[in-house]
Amino acid sequence: MAAGANAYSASRAGYGSYTTPSGRTGTFYSPTAAAIAQSNAAAQNEAMISATIETGHRNMAVLEQAVIKDNTLLPGEWYGGQLHLAPPTDQGGAQKSSTIVITVGPDRHVILTSFRGRREFS
Question: pTM of the predicted model, to two decimals?
Answer without folding.
Answer: 0.43
